[in-house]
Amino acid sequence: MNNAFQKAEPILQTLHRNGYQAYFVGGAVRDFLIGRPTGDIDIATSAKPEQVQELFEKVIPVGIEHGTVMVRYDEESYEVTTFRTEGDYHDYRHPDHVHFVKDIYEDISRRDFTMNAIAMGIDGELIDPYDGLNAITKGEIETVGKPDDRFEEDPLRMMRALRFVSQLGFTLSSTTYQAIQQHAPLLENIAVERLSIEFEKLIQGHHASKAWPLFIHSNTDQHLPVFKEEPSLMRYCATKKWRALGDFAEALCIFHLFEPTFPIEYWVKEWKLSNKIKRKASLLVSSYNEWHVGNELWTIYKLGFELLSPFVRISNLMRAKDEIDIKTAKKMFEALPIHRREELSINGKDIRSWFSNHPPGPWIESMLVTIERLVIEGHITNEKEILKERVLQWNPQEED
Ligand code: ATP
Ligand code: MG
């Protein structure tokens, strides 16, 4: 077992000592068996949420109604969930009800794919009733039980299947794939927020190039927000050598550059994304356009250090040939005369005081941007007296 599981062992031990069963389950077990870095470790137990709460000092009741509490231990967080099965998903959001069950086998039977339906005990022993280990060895994604039933029950699982293709580079078993072809329209019933979470993970996968053709051939893209309005969009995605992206914002930038008919705001609204994603995507799009009209220094400055890597990722994905590497971008940024507005030797107050007879307004901001840009592009030096002289050349009356 690796360090992450060893670190979590005391939680299983505490549960065992108190007479409960407990296992590691879900994605971390799968990733450990594949040999990938493991993400969050989830634990399934026969203890009820209240009982788990009594046993540990730091417990956060994150999803008590679904049987889950978060246990904080040794600076890590673990989701500890009572063995359960799920009822029907009538609203396609949450199961109507959750039943606690006695043993791990029943708990495992509700899980989506055989590779995700393996439990691991404290000594590393596996409980693998659906032969998930074999699926992992073959690199195959197959549902627990009949795919038709499982996708009808919760259609989100189709999107999850495709995101696992992108994350793991696995293939879909033929029955799983056929069922997706047949049930793709059910994706329209899924809450967009749930789709977005899975779709973002797909975008972050290293094998997205393997997932896009599956969307096209199963017609799944025709049941996704925005993609359904433009059949060529997913086809365009499939023509590119895709790389793992950082988040949804980076993908939005690319989708918008492919098909400018749909503004970023529209994507954000349709996929119910955050304002943070909207701001980042918009800045990446404007930066990409600025760069390609030759304003390279200004682009690098406007992006700021944090967004250099996302910019390099999207630029290289858009082009057949790498056009900029991160080392060069960072060097360019470091060589800039200033790195943020605050480093300019003048500010808005100075400009106001030099034009005290002129009422303040948006002209101050546009003056600052003009000066900022002249400095960045090396036309004037960032010294107060020099900038002042340049500012004073401006005659506000001319523009009134
Ligand atoms: P990741 O490493 O990306 O988090 P994961 O497999 O852990 O992948 P989660 O969404 O965290 O994915 O779900 C944890 C586990 O819960 C899954 O491995 C699976 O066993 C089960 N699960 C999650 N979503 C569903 C679902 N819609 N239907 C059935 N089982 C699910
Ligand atoms: Mg997980």
List the helices and strands and how they pair.
Elements: H1 3-17, E1 22-25, H2 27-34, E2 42-45, H3 49-55, E3 58-63, E4 68-73, E5 76-82, E6 84-86, E7 98-100, H4 104-109, E8 119-120, E9 126-127, H5 132-138, E10 140-141, H6 147-153, H7 156-168, E11 171-172, H8 174-183, H9 192-203, H10 208-218, H11 232-239, H12 248-258, H13 264-270, H14 275-291, H15 296-303, H16 308-318, H17 326-334, H18 348-354, H19 362-376, H20 384-392, H21 396-399
Parallel strand pairs: 2-5, 10-11
Antiparallel strand pairs: 1-2, 3-4, 4-5, 6-7, 8-9
Helix pairs in contact: 6-8, 7-9, 7-10, 10-11, 12-14, 12-16, 14-15
Bound molecules: adenosine-5'-triphosphate and magnesium ion.
Describe this structure in words.
It comes from Pontibacillus yanchengensis. It is an enzyme of class 2 (transferase). Keywords: Nucleotidyltransferase, Transferase. It is a single chain. With 400 residues, this protein is of the alpha+beta class. 50% of the residues lie in helices and 10% in strands. The chain has 21 helices and eleven strands. Strand 8 (119-120) and strand 9 form a beta hairpin. Helix 7 packs parallel to helix 9 (192-203) and helix 10 (208-218) runs antiparallel to helix 11. It is elongated. The structure holds adenosine-5'-triphosphate and magnesium ion. Adenosine-5'-triphosphate binds next to helix 7.
Give a nutshell description of this structure.
With 400 residues, the protein is an alpha+beta fold.
